[in-house]
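Q: what sequence does this backbone want?
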């Protein structure tokens, strides 16, 4: 239904009901810094079931990059927005609501003073996601789908809840560099 494979999704739901550990997935990504002038500063392959895609990131010129690729936060904002829109579409399919069109928008103001070491202000105070929907459902049903997307979207959860972050540093020989 509207590009959601309900059969596969329902099988996954049943599998998760029987064994929640069966639907846990490891997410591992790698990337490399590019020392070549004018090129995107960071590049890495992102694997997916059909292969992999190369993503590049570069800071805008005022932040020391060339602006030759999206900045890292753009991927965060876009990824969150994609997750939210996709979760909404998935919930609509699960509820039998046909979507004719769905457009998603993200907006945020980024304060670079923290990144520049000039303040302790948060770099982003709010992210706004907006969906435009054309579907066979009344306003109450659409609001119910929004509530479900708000509750079930992994991207929304990650923005609303602190997640533990562990950082380490290794040398060229893969030995940890200790403080």
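A:
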């Amino acid at each position: 239904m509207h590009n959601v494979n309900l059969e596969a999704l329902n099988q996954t739901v049943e599998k998760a009901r029987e064994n929640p550990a069966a639907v846990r997935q490891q997410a591992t990504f790698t990337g490399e810094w590019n020392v070549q002038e004018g090129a995107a500063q960071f590049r890495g392959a992102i694997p997916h079931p059909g292969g992999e895609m190369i993503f590049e990131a570069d800071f805008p010129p005022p932040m020391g990059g060339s602006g030759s690729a999206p900045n890292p936060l753009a991927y965060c904002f876009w990824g969150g927005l994609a997750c939210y829109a996709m979760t909404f579409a998935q919930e609509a399919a699960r509820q039998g609501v046909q979507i004719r069109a769905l457009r998603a928008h993200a907006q945020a103001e980024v304060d670079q003073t923290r990144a520049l070491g000039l303040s302790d202000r948060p770099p982003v105070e709010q992210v706004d996601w907006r969906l435009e929907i054309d579907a066979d459902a009344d306003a109450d049903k659409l609001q119910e789908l929004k509530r479900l997307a708000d509750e079930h979207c992994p991207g929304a959860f990650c923005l609303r809840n602190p997640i533990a972050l562990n950082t380490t540093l290794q040398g060229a020989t893969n030995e940890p560099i200790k403080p």
